[in-house]
Amino acid sequence: MEVQETRVQTDRVFTIPNVLSMARLLGVPLFLWLVLLPEFGGPNADGWALAVLALSGVSDYLDGKLARRWNQISSLGRILDPAADRLYILSTLVGLTWRDVLPLWLPILLLSREVMLLAMVWLLDRRGFAPPQVNFLGKAATFNLMYAFPLLLLSDGSGWLASLAAIFGWAFAGWGTALYWWAGALYVVQVRRILAADAATG
Questions:
Q1: Helix or strand or coil: residue 10?
Q2: CB 3.0-4.6 Å disulfide test: which of 81, 83, 123, 176 passes with 145?
Q3: Phi/psi of residue 2, each to 5°?
Q4: Rounded CA gap, 92 and 51, in Å?
Q5: Are 107 and 93 in contact (CB under 8 A)?
Q6: Residue 74 zone, left/alpha/beta (φ > 0; ψ -120 to 50; rest)
Q7: What phi and psi values does residue 13 have, to the nearest 5 degrees?
Q8: pTM for the full model?
Q9: 74 three-class SS
């Protein structure tokens, strides 16, 4: 799958899209603290944790849309956006696994994919290449996981709402994990093509 290069249109740091991304990053430790609060003798704060996660989803949509609409796509924004996505996924995996909402195999499966991609980025960096752009499947996988985790957090309770959240949460988690690895495989193919072309011209 070919990935189109997005042209950087500004070198400014303090644009509204970048500020939204920074705020989303600041919400990561707050979200994790709220999720783990009951584990350390505090009150259940799942409602607040879900609110933080919902706000992060809104900001994720807005920062990209505003950056394109206002011609404020920046190098920093291209780093902050995927970094915030991955940190939210990581913090959710840590929090929900700690609380036994998620089985251990799921974070291992997702994190092993990240380790594989880090190796690909390292190989590209050694040859002087920038990492390829995030592809559509990667974004789709992230959206699925971002829907899955709040639902799975909501499923950690009793009653019909928790049961319904578990059904839909695991459905999104299954699709998200499959797409996550599919996107990772496409990334590996891209990296192999880049390195093969470089070897051929070198």
A1: strand
A2: 176
A3: -75, 140
A4: 14
A5: yes
A6: beta
A7: -90, -50
A8: 0.74
A9: strand
pLDDT one-digit tens code per residue, 164-202: 999 999 999 999 999 999 988 988 888 888 888 877 776
Dihedral pair phi/psi, residue 74, rounded to 5°:
-135, 160
Distances (CA, A) of 39 to 45, 94, 112, 152, 159: 11, 13, 26, 17, 22
Nearest to 64 by CA among 3, 13, 16, 29: 16
The runs of H, that is alpha helices, within 37-104 are 46-69, 75-98
Residues 6+ apart with CB under 8 A from 29: 91
Task: Please name which of 84, 115, 90 lies closest in space to residue 102, comparing C-alpha atoms.
Answer: 90
Spatial distance between the Cα atoms of 151 and 167, rounded to a whole number of angstroms: 9
Q: Are 38 and 45 in contact (CB under 8 A)?
A: yes
For residue 141, which amino acid is it?
A
* Token output for 169: 């949460």
The alpha carbon of residue 135 and the mean position of all alpha carbons in its chain are separated, in whole angstroms, by: 13
- Rounded Cα distance between 108 and 154, Å, is 22
Given the structure tokens 């974004």, which residue do they identify?
139
